Amino acid sequence: MIANRARKLICPIDDMPLWEFGTRVIWISVQLLSAYCLARPGTPFFYQLF
Amino acid sequence: MPQGDFIDFARFEFWLACAVAVVALQITAHAPLRKWLQASVNVGFLGLLLESRLVWVVVGTIAVWLLLKSMAYDRFRRRALLLIGATTFLLFVWNKSWDLALETRLYRVNAILSTIGFSYVALRLVEVSRAIFEGRCTVPDLPNTINYLLPFHMLAAGPIQAYDEFVEQPVPPPMLTPRDVLTAAGRISDGLFKKYVLAYAIDHLFLTDFTSAGIGYFLETQFFFLWLYLDFSAYSDIAVGIGILMGVRTPENFDRPYLARNMIDFWERWHISLSLFIRRNIFIPTQMWAMRRTRGDWPLTCATLAFTLSFVLCGLWHELDLRFLAWGCLHALGLIVTNWYRHLLRMRLGSRGIQQYMQNRFFKVMATCVTYEFVALSLVVAFS
After folding, report:
1. Whose CA is closest to B194, among A45, A10, A15, A17?
2. In chain A, positions 3-42, which contact chain B (CB-CB < 8 Å)?
3. Which bin fits B5, alpha (ψ -120 to 50), beta or left (φ > 0)?
4. Whose C-alpha in A27, B34, B134, B284 is 20 to 30 A from the C-alpha of B75?
């Protein structure tokens, strides 16, 4: 029961394995961090110009 | 190049405002005034960009709403449709005419139109006007008019949601689940990574505004298509992610267009919302008109006419100049050739032969490469 509660805290998605949830969270974090490091204000998306 | 303000996804203020909007809309998900709060969020975003000029957008939206309401009366239906159509067309042409506008004081109008992404608003105006005129949908109230025409997360570059789809959205939206949050976070991070990491890398390594020569030019034509896909699909990913968090249905815009095996397949994978708009509002009506005139005797010719008109207009929608007219004509040609080729294959191979042909890996790879090169070449015509 304690293990179940701990798992639910770490991985709130019932039908997703913990490793998959962890991998997706880590990948999202990597993507956001790298985008944060390289993003420069003042660069619109190309199709905003149409 | 337009000189309006634009929604800058690299600014912290944008994401802070987004977070506030998402929390507010989730808290009020079941409240009867949710649509008013959503309209306030949409107008509020525009207010951050336009400041005092927002009043013109609000006045314009109210005027559109009143004209749409007048369509409920038979006496005013046609006149209201004509007025909306004519005004939309004039504003669209003016929006594209920056060179002319800069010589007059009216360039301020262009700045407002660019900021609200009028090219996309114009298509939504066509959608909603047609849906009401043809009696498919009832007239929206003011907050829903604002929410359909000016959704902040779809403002800058689409997607272009069909009005029927907007009306069919569940109200209140389904409860947000942890899986939805993870999906939304994934889409947003995918979009930011594609734009600020992958597209940025390609831009810096390979793109020279087509000033390179020899093998460099060839590589640039290949990577420009990829860069455009990454940049544009990134925006759509972010829009879909924000839409999930707000409980607002946002249509998909891309489905691996680099894997298209012919031009018809390409336009079912690239800028899908625009492609569907063209199909609903230009291709099918044109084809049906032509079929009626020819009593259905020349279906291929009717489709040829419909493709030509659709993609000439598609090219001009991007920019009112010869390069984009040529781009549109090239795509029309690609679609016409694909359609005729399909017809030829059906006649020669029959349905079983077609199945074997479609499953043949060699033909699939060749067709995909040819399609990729064709699209890449057409982009050179438009953007070099």
Report:
1. A45
2. 12-13, 16, 21, 24-25, 27-28, 31-32, 34-35, 38-42
3. beta
4. B284
DSSP one-letter string for B89-114: HHHHHHHH-HHHHHTSTTHHHHHHHH
Residue B253 backbone phi and psi in degrees, to 5? -120, -15
Dump pLDDT digits (tens) for B46-69.
998 899 999 999 999 999 999 999
- Indicate the pTM of the whole model: 0.93
Identity at B279, one-letter amino acid code: R
> Which amino acid belongs to residue B89?
F
Question: Torsions phi, psi of B20, nearest 5?
Answer: -60, -45
The 10s digit of each residue's pLDDT in B209-261 is 889 888 999 999 999 999 999 999 999 999 999 999 999 999 999 999 999 99
Confidence tier at B100 by pLDDT (50, 70, 90): confident
In terms of CA atoms, which chain A residue is nearest residue B197?
A35
Whole-angstrom Cα distance, residue B149 to residue B84? 13
Q: Distance between CA atoms of B93 and B84, rounded to whole angstroms?
A: 14
Nearest to B366 by CA among B260, B267, B227: B260
The helix (H) or strand (E) run that includes residue A26 is helix A18-38
Interatomic CA distance for residues B264 and B116, integer angstroms: 31
Contacts of A49 in chain B (CB under 8 A): 1-2
ipTM of this complex prediction, to 2 decimal places: 0.87
CB contact under 8 A, A34 and B197: yes
CB atoms within 10 A of CB B275: 20
CB-based contact, B2 to chain A, within 8 Å: yes
